[in-house]
Amino acid sequence: MTDVLPLVEHFALGLDAPICLTWELTYACNLACSHCLSSSGRRDPRELSTAQAKAVIDELQRMQVFYVNIGGGEPTVRADFWELLDYATAHDVGVKFSTNGIRLDAEAARRIAANSYVDVQISIDGATAEVNDAVRGQGSYDVAVQALQHLADVGVSAKLSVVCTRHNISQLDAFKAIADRFGAQLRLTRLRPSGRGADVWDELHPTQAQQRELYDWLVLHGEGVLTGDSFFHLAAYGEALPGLNLCGAGRVVCLIDPVGDVYACPFAIHDAFLAGNVLGEGGFARVWRESELFLELREPQSGGTCRSCDQYDACRGGCMAAKFFTGLPLDGPDPECVKGHGELGLAAVAPGTAPKPSLDHSHKGGVRGGPVPIQIGRRRPDKACDENPLSALIP
Amino acid sequence: MLDLAFDLSPGVSIRPESFGALLYHFGTRRLSFLKDPRLLAVVQQLPGSASAREACLSAGLAADELPAYARALTTLVATDMIKERT
After folding, report:
1. What are the pLDDT digits (tens) for A84-120?
2. What residues in A contact B76, CB-CB < 8 Å?
3. Do A10 and B19 touch (CB under 8 A)?
4. How far apart, in whole angstroms, are the C-alpha atoms of residue A123 and residue A21?
């Protein structure tokens, strides 16, 4: 007899349908966040039509995909956004959508409140406008807070969705306070070197000390804080964090992009992880069940150079996309390996050789009020050969 | 527990998988896993049965297996996946 427990071993071999999937409805976005995982900005002329999107929903209903995580780009700028949302929930496909809040006025909030199968995530990457706007663009903090207010006004418990960076790890308590103020739930996720994120990863990804701080904070707050299971590489510190501690790419999750292309995961928009297109013969179900790439991902993994590490069973080598876009081998350590093995690997990657994203829909020339990176505490070494970060502090 | 009758809670869907099934509750957004095809069979029998015991026996369980399955059903009640019929 067995009990009602998560079954990592089955999941690693894949399921008949994803548990949930990410569906980016458009590459269009009013913002130009410096770390955008899908290099969004401009709409792609080949994006799925309303009828095509509804056909995808019909198929998800048949496959019993219980909910989709809708994102973009900024999904709410699609003219048929609310129509698709209502269509999905009327067809037993729950919707969780991520937005920067630009279209989330009082009327939209009422609409969300009236549909019990919809969850909304407001993205914010700093607990202060200064830290947030440096990454997401001028004014974006105020827009997000306004959206949270509209949702709180109609009694909707939103999710406050934060990508953890070097500049906001010190603000975890402040994020929690903002979430509490609006009756929202905090969701923290990992910064990946995907899309434009590759360009800023070196400056923005948390330091080793910050990773430890984040891990301790997550352990302290347990299931009260959502993580999208994105920090399983931190399990190598000891105790596993709540959730599925494995890479679900092509096994329990995947991405459908705005043109209907199916990738192994939302952070892997690259030809190497492209499994097919929902418009092809057999539709999404065939891509999920039969594509060569997904079948390969469901094969037992060798573990590669990580196999000899005593923590391999905890972190399972970390995030595939993070390795790929930093130029590391997929069967070796994660670039943010808590044991430091990733840093050694990164030092061996020749500059400029990491794979670039296959697509780029970034705004040409940026947007007004676009992000301006902040520089904090980074003094040049006093001498060319002086790499000691403490040197400036020694009198 | 075994003498009571149960139904699936409103808003709960079952998706069979090779290892058993996924249960999703659209109201609580909670996902549960039935790791055992026989437990899935029991859950599927519940709505048509006068008691949990009857559902277990219809699913082909032996009498000495009932306590373990009763514990699993108790977990499903606690997470509101199934509900006592009233």
Report:
1. 999 999 999 999 999 999 999 999 999 999 999 999 9
2. 4
3. yes
4. 19
How far are the Cα atoms of A79, A259, A260, A272, A341 from residue A44, in angstroms, in the given order? 14, 8, 11, 20, 39
Distance of CA A2 to CAs A393, B13, B37, B39, B73, Å? 59, 21, 10, 9, 12
Give the dihedral of Cα atoms A263, A269, A271, A277; nearest 10 deg.
40
Q: Is the dihedral of CA A31, A35, A41, A47 positive or negative?
A: negative
Total-model pTM: 0.90
What is the amino acid identity at position A24? E
Nearest to B22 among A2, A19, A119 (CB): A19
CA distance A380 to A358: 34
pLDDT in tens, A249-306: 999 899 999 999 999 999 999 999 999 999 999 999 999 999 999 999 998 877 788 9
Ramachandran quadrant class, A157 (left: phi over 0; alpha: psi -120 to 50; beta: rest): beta
Residues of B in contact with A6 (CB under 8 A): 33
Q: Does A66 touch chain B (CB under 8 A)?
A: yes
Nearest to A68 by CA among A10, A111, A114, A25: A25
Interface of B with A in 5-64 (CB under 8 A): 13, 15, 17-19, 22, 24, 26-27, 29, 31-36, 39
Per residue in A344-388, pLDDT tens? 899 999 888 999 888 899 998 878 888 987 765 444 444 444 444
- DSSP code, position B10: T
Residue owning tokens 């995580």: A69
Q: Two tokens at A303?
A: 């573990």
What part of B 59-78 touches A (C-beta under 8 Å)? 65, 68-69, 71-72, 75-76
Provide the pairing of β-strand B12-17 with B20-25. Answer: antiparallel
Residues of B in contact with A64 (CB under 8 A): 13, 15
